[in-house]
Amino acid sequence: MNxxxxxxxxxxxxxxxxxGAVSIAAAPSGSxxxxxxxxxxxxxxxxxxxYERIVNGQDAPVIAALAKQYxxxxxxxxxxxxxxPNYVAIVGGSTFGIADDAPFSSSGHTIDxxxxxxxxxxxRLTWKGYYESLPEPGSLTIGSGLYASxxxxxxxxxxxxxxxxxGEHLVDFLQMEKDLQSGDIPNFALIVPNxxxxxxxxxxxxxxxxxxARGLIRRGDNEIKTLVDDIMASxxxxxGANAAIVITFDEGDSxxxxxGHIPTIVVTNHGPRHTTDPTPYSHYSLLRTIEDAFGIxxxxxxxxxxxxxxxxxxxxxxxxxxxxxx
Length: 326
Prior knowledge:
Mean pLDDT: 89
Helix content: 25-40%
CATH class: Alpha Beta
CATH architecture: 3-Layer(aba) Sandwich
Shape: globular
Radius of gyration: 18 Å
Order of helices and strands: EEHHEHHEEEHHEHEHHEEEEHH
Number of strands: 12
Strand content: 15-25%
Number of helices: 11
């Protein structure tokens, strides 16, 4: 079955086929309590937009259609304002006291702690961070043009900074295109568009739609379409193994409490359809779900808190053989 967006999400056709098609997910019980094993998870992080602004079906029609056709967490909250602590939380399970966007080289912003990259490597799984407009593979540049290291997450950890293979792990979108086409796809991919394409905006330059609110959302929405289409065309997506694309945001509007109420959409190749999940989640919930999906149960920091539950209804798989390997 072709799940590509070219014939579906861009026109909102699939998302609104039948009134009432969206179901409210209930947490599985009994033998279904574990997150199925996934071969690939692609995590796309966008910037600074509230749940209501993105899923209303008008400003970001592609993302809204994906939310309707696949799955969406309706009560997902970020950890803090501004950006950097949320990116760190996504891959580290804590903000580690970071409360600003200072460079990773600043005092207190380089972290000596396990993170998702060290977990994956210890489990003999592969990972990459794909950063649009990255100056060069493995770059330690703080910011250059439309790239900003505060949106990296991984670079805040000393283990990544000192990784001799950093240039293989932190790469640009051109390398992502090559990997998707060749089939040399990591188990976990963190995908971060540049400042014009992640809805953040560039200050003091760039095209008109790179610094107007509505233009930024439409530009970012189109970027999501391109990324999702490319991933769905890959061998990883078309195989019998479980794969998921997660679209989330670092934070919501600046005036919202905590880090704000943000959109988080889960698109799976063998999982739920037309599913809404009202469970309160956070980036820590997402991290725990990723860990579970890769068979890692020594959770990072707050991902292991008793109050944190995995996003089971949005990752559940009933039919894919690969899910039984967990």
